[in-house]
């Protein structure tokens, strides 16, 4: 078979801010390496203007020094915080841009001093004193143990609690900063439109606008400046663009035309950029209308048409990516592409782009204070900041609020001394997602089994795994059914695992980056276990675990209750146990819709009217809705009544805010939290209208028997859409819907308004 | 809920040929209706120039006469070739463009005289003598009984026999012409990229280039001129564009960007237009990047950006469609949209477009000879042409060649006196597709059960339905298993039905226009029947029926043989029986790939490299290939050896033809037909390359023990692709693969060539 064309699949970061207009000099040989650098060089002066410092520093740099900034040293720390010095030196020779933590099993107290020493040394030993920047993934928190282990992104989004999420982002930021990690590869705003993708658990959900709201809060918080004016931690918004790739595959093709991309896939970015400026942007692994995202000028610099090319050599790929705006790769190939150019490829030809790329990388290092701060490990911060009481408390709250009660026929909450059989292969697993500092080989008493045993007492809990996660052998389903009959109530904990690459369960994964689960059925024999337990007649509570939707048609609907915990952190098991016994009233709401059947796509609520088979038309399997549980759905132990919304007026200008008020009454017998969700639809538009779009939400805590007025502000400027690259908010009629889920039956209204 | 915006969903036809540069006068009131028409008016002169005749006729027409040409009278004939005269007159008042046959259950001998009389009368009674044009669907032949009943489009494509298909197209044309039907709504070149779509059976298959080859042959043949220079039958290429809609839904959104649309969805049109000019084009029901296809200027006139709008009134929708190039609707709304304009909509504003539309419609009526020929029913032609010996023979041949043997472990062919149990609800059904003149209420001895009983003898055939098609009740699976055990071999005939709206099985449909089958599993309890029979241990032959792929993983793989008959015509049952006993050696090849599981998409062979989960990456369910049976696959009762291809040279110019020669040897014991399939791949290109593309094929009949040299010509100009609207054939390296299916293991090569 032929040699395939290649392009950069590895992580690459391009800066969002505009390119510097006049590039610095284009030194093309090693001459500058001999340039004497004066003691009082401008770039060394913390009081000098930032852009002057960057330009000055660049003027002293020779070619190899420049291209070395565009790569990094990744994964250098093995377990036990050790590293191979010879290998490190070999990589660090031409890769001076970034350094990243390596093994996720290292403890912060051990790894941070080692990494900090390397960074300090990199600064000291670099001819011009340019240090590494410490960059890392941070989906569940820093990828070092001894830090707070938060749930993954999708899970936290299910809380629908923007102030709480902002608090968590601040905690996360402070733990990262304490570890010396000043650049993170978050937030991931990809619109989760394909339930088959293995990365849904890393995303916020299926609503473009909501993803932007949460990401803007995250970025604004994480990039906050410290008292010295240094950015605390830089963020990376990603993956530009992704969300509806062919087959749900991470590197699959994205077919979308311009209208689709601007209105759906790129909308979170647009929403974010109206509020905050992320320090960097990561292209997706996908192709966009046939052009690899890393070589696509359109999404990064917005110049058209794309002139980049897929390539047959590393040099070509590097140059094409560079020309498209890519400025850094988190691996060792990008600088290598520019090390030895040949043929009609010349240093002169790429020097301008290299200077621009390096300027912005240096600019960020200055902004983060890396030239001006002491970069040694801060042991005080490590002790005081990591796992602080406030951080753990915020973590516990958001974990509690993120668990979604999908179904409850009244079996929940359980009484505090209920005897239960805890069944299924996920009961004794901490299912974090791929980017968490945790291994299931460690016994941390953090699993649901640990928590429910502590809660109900070991005499009341009998655990039988019944089946393995993915294996189709060695089942003990009969034993599980017997335990269920003996206990009288079964809690079946099933799903899919997405864990780190060093986790003991890594080979059991069907979910996570690089994975695709075309089927949303349960892997292995888990479905058989569920069927056997339910068909035995024992009242069954299904607990789902995994960063995805599952197919819950059929026998699962004969259960008494269904809860989903998604990808959890250290409090997931305990929070779930507290919900089961009614100590916590569940308040999570879905941010992804659950299809009725695996094959039924699309399921997302915000589809074009013609995308779902029309009522009356024949669909096999026969469905009235594509979803079984819609976006926004989540039950409580109490009942709420939402009043019709009242608006401050009915006609608005293009820049107005619509002030909407809803009275939420807790009509049940326990206190609880409810999410007021506001959707809208434009009556007539040049494009095929989405059936509805979320435009506001607010979570409110309402004591039993009380009523609370909730105000939600809709920004008229956000009601618009993109047509052929132009944003427009049309004059005319709009409709506002309010309710507690996206399902039509849950929404009151519409209230008609007019935009002038 | 709010009023939805509306747009024309009904069938609409726009002409492909360029717009007439200077429109005729824009008479805006009824004044022209008073214009005296001289006896020697230019348009009445058959010897005058065509364009002069059109312009002259238009100059006498008033507004209502013009807009009346843009609509038609549809479905006027009920069963028994009768019609409601009052209803007809009411519709015909403002709809003088087209007339179509109505009930598919009418016999040509009865209906054609009635329809012809209406057409003759329409010409006589029209102030200017403009007749209706008789237009109709023709997937399986004319939609009148007493004509030859061919298989549906997908089925005939499976024969991979271009000369034979051309013969069939000529037969089809002559039957249409004999019926007075001079305009057909074929060919349907939609690229069958979503197996969930209910219309796959009407399409050719998943390869854009192949669809274009077959459609070009069809159009060239059907539009052939008669001895008087009149076009015999006009064609309609459709649906521009469709093939990868969201959800597989007929009206769903198409996301494709420009590169995707030109290289995949529009490629059949481009291929066709390089060879022939279809008389008309039908936009799809879908939205394209958010714009309804009927209001999208881009695909029809190729001007960008689209400025059309979805609409809130019929007037708006009509005007927007008209502006986008739509010129005729096969229903009664389009003229109505222009009958009474109001507000800022004026007759003056749309008159130019109406004149253009009407000019082209009249032009076609002249080209078809409708002004100059006798339009009375031709009873001689009805007797001599319909169901002629040649037509039936061509039909039988293409039906035989279209049946695909997917699997055979040696059980086939059966001996001529084999005892069999014929099971399943499709055994006694003629499964034609939606657009066929047939009903299963009629006993025509055309089913497979009829044929196999006649072939093996009634003593050897025991039929038990076992289950209904879709019902989940009233099964007799036990009886079916008993019959299987008694016979020793089971033939299980299962699938999905797509039949006409007047068929007795219409309520059993899960396939066909307007239907979506997200699941490719068997409807109802058919899967249970199959499992029970196979698990009983009786050797089982699965016969599939339906215009779609089915999920054949699992128990189906424990069968001894699998055949697919798709949507058949009158010879389908007999052709299958002949194959089962070895009287015919099967030679059909798939033009659609069969997924391993329903959920696994995409399955088409010509995907981007990154669209399938990479080998080594984890996919659930676990697969090495997305397909179970690939495009091009089909078995024979003999064995063939294909030599490596020899080429006439290795370097070619941009307009050259590559002459490729392959020796096909029949190494088995029976005569057989083999399809030489030629694929190619460009080594490096600006766009993400498809893994391979079909570029040539040839079917050859090889006697047992013989070898035949097969020449296939590849046109270098067809190796190119579209980038941002520009077509290009790159200089550089290409690879040629030859084999008997698209699967890598079936292909020899690659042979490297160079394009200068």
Describe it.
The structure is a homodimer. The first copy, chain A, has about 750 residues and is of the alpha/beta class. Helices cover about 25% and strands about 20% of the residues of chain A. In chain A, strands 12-18-17-15-13-14 form a six-stranded mixed sheet, with helices on both faces. In chain A, strand 29 and strand 30 (about 725-730) form a beta hairpin. In chain A, helix 7 (about 210-220) packs parallel to helix 9 and helix 16 crosses helix 19. The longest helix of chain A has 21 residues, at about 345-365. The radius of gyration of chain A is 27 Å and the shape is globular. The first copy, chain A, starts with 11 loop residues before the first strand and ends with a strand. Chains A and B meet through helix 8, strand 9, strand 10, strand 16 and strand 20 of A and helix 8, strand 9, strand 10, strand 16 and strand 20 of B. Strand 16 (about 515) of chain A pairs parallel with strand 20 (about 620) of chain B, so a sheet runs across the interface.
